[in-house]
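Input for the complex:
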Amino acid sequence: MFDVAVVGATGAVGTTMLRILEERGFPVTELRPLASARSEGRQIDYLGRPRTVRTLTADAFEGIQIALFSAGASRAREFAPAAVEAGAVVIDNSSAFRMDPSVPLVVPEVNEHDIEGHSGIIANPNCVAAPLVVALKPIADAVGLERVIVSSYQSVSGTGQAAVAELTEQSAGYLAGAEPEPSVYPHPIAFNALPHIGDFDESGYTGEEQKVADETRKMLGLPDLAVSATCVRVPVMQSHSQAVHIETTEAIDPDAVRRLLMAAPGVMLVDEPGLNLYPLPRDATGRDEVLVGRIRKDTSHPRGLALWVVSDNLRKGAATNAVQIAESLVTRGWL
Amino acid sequence: MFDVAVVGATGAVGTTMLRILEERGFPVTELRPLASARSEGRQIDYLGRPRTVRTLTADAFEGIQIALFSAGASRAREFAPAAVEAGAVVIDNSSAFRMDPSVPLVVPEVNEHDIEGHSGIIANPNCVAAPLVVALKPIADAVGLERVIVSSYQSVSGTGQAAVAELTEQSAGYLAGAEPEPSVYPHPIAFNALPHIGDFDESGYTGEEQKVADETRKMLGLPDLAVSATCVRVPVMQSHSQAVHIETTEAIDPDAVRRLLMAAPGVMLVDEPGLNLYPLPRDATGRDEVLVGRIRKDTSHPRGLALWVVSDNLRKGAATNAVQIAESLVTRGWL
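Predicted:
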């Protein structure tokens, strides 16, 4: 049994982490919720009992063995070293350490063994990259993978609870003819589509688009993989979708891909378009699997394939994957 | 001055056609609105005067010189020949005749001269293909075009007025905790994303995805162009967006593309991401231009480019383009 801290316990991902620790029966002795000072003293529920939120400080990790961080990159940089110093292994959901060559970036279905070499911090990937590698790994292993083009349809819960509230209020306002001003996003998100997630860099890509490319390469162990993404926020509450066009090294037909994915860990094949069955964000919400469908040849390339990949960004895209990493640490004896 | 019929005058596109004929001061003598029998006798407004809707029949085209059809493919097949027989030139917004080799498929900014060879019917393109070729034509002419990958974010008005009502009612219901059953779409569209527009064929592509590929090739005059699309319905009322990744024959840098597009007819460049300026569906709505931004290298290919293209599907994607074709017929003497 383990003493577990959840850092950012009152946020969208932190709250989901608590639910997933419960659901999966993670062997917790003490559950210590940590958050910013403004949540100090707030009661949150874990396994039917109230737990008091404590302020995140450098000395809050005493006795903790596993610290699940979901508090953003700057807090991770500030407090993860203290947690490691106190003897905890940190599983961090932010981008702070993901591309650090000494930090494993892990989706257990894809590269679980990378966890073994950790030095106290393990990074949890971006919410588009995580489901993407779950879907692509079996294909890459079978026939090789050379290029990936992703266009995402990302839900507002990826931004946080304030964004869910903003979409809710803006939608109601729009329908009533009195839309409130945007505050979380620079433009209205209700009934709109914003091609802007993260900051723009010199190249014209956003931070989110760069993460999808960099993290996909790192987790698949393919440093030369060609990846380009267009990341778009859409008025969906939860679960991210992605239209994925890939080029493999050897050609593979869609039926063979379906067989691979049916057998792949963490994948739920939803691919009977004639029966109107394909992955949908509202169907993926609350599930831990990555839903994959619309599998077909990309007819614009002799070794092209197209797929439609949907997963719950708060679960497999964040909390579930972090808890799975914690499970690997425990069951493999890598703690 | 011309006698003009608008077929499907009470629908989403037909209504927009009337507004655009007014806005552009098209030289109309008689404006004859035609629709199905259930709209017979309904009054619609044109230039501030009520006009009585007549039932679409084979003998409804007497004296008409230009017939703008927006009544679906089966009605176009049934009634367009009668209109031509009566002496009208038909501009048809459905897919019925688009891929007929004897029928010009035209976006005036791209291939206006194809109109000249018409035999009575001119096809108006699909609402994703039309803006796509407006954005790609200047690039294709400058450096050649070899491959196009499109992921669309299509609004419900592309389906029609009933779909706009469905999104409105479903959104309100969802927010109130009592969502009505879907009827226009097979799944809820509110706060969801449906990768299903048109019927699925054997290859796994939808009719919409096939139209984007076929029509793009035909209008650009590039029969061997490699095109693959993923078409997705999103909870947006009006204007379609598309993430476009292309491969050119010769490499071209993003600044050169910006210069080309700034000078291109029908294009509005909206590409200052550092100022949060990029095309948005709610900004494109009500405009006739195709908005293009997010122009950057597609770093996954040595001659790759990525763009974000947004346009009002009822205007440039349908009604505006049809009226532009009518203007070409008149001003070029091709009627």
